[in-house]
Design brief:
Blueprint (H helix, E strand, L loop, with lengths): L7 E10 L5 E5 L4 E5 L4 E10 L2 E4 L2 E15 L14 E17 L4 E17 L17 E9 L1
Antiparallel strand pairs: 1-4, 2-3, 4-6, 5-6, 6-7, 7-8, 8-9
Amino acid sequence: MITGDNAWQYFSQIRWQQPFLYQSAYNPDSGLNELYKPGYQIDGAAGIVYNNLYNVLGFDKIAPLVQVIASHRQRDSGAASDPLNTGFDRLMISPGIEFTKVVDEEHKRVFKFYVDVEIPIYYRTNAAINDNGSQGQLIAPYMFKTVASYNF
């Protein structure tokens, strides 16, 4: 809570993604099974939300928010990977909004819809020319996220 009336709130989270199952594939050129191990990824987010818009546009609550998201993705490894062209660091700003509609107050059935756009303000990718002549990584100029949920 940022303000005493609970209208402005803050949040933060950290997420670690560590692959624990790996894949290998037979390479007919070398005659070997080659292992592919994706790199781990860690994401951290911090933001603020305005939690005081009630009974607007037919919704019971609308909550606009903005967050900053930082990410680090380690390079992939294994003989079947392309470690020179995998992995990144990025920093994004993400404005969003959440809509809440109480469908059945007695049974606490609530519908929520969330949408945001994640806009990179810093991006560093690993990029090098590999064996087949390709170079670099494809990255999106921005990302959209939507989440719909229903409590029953």
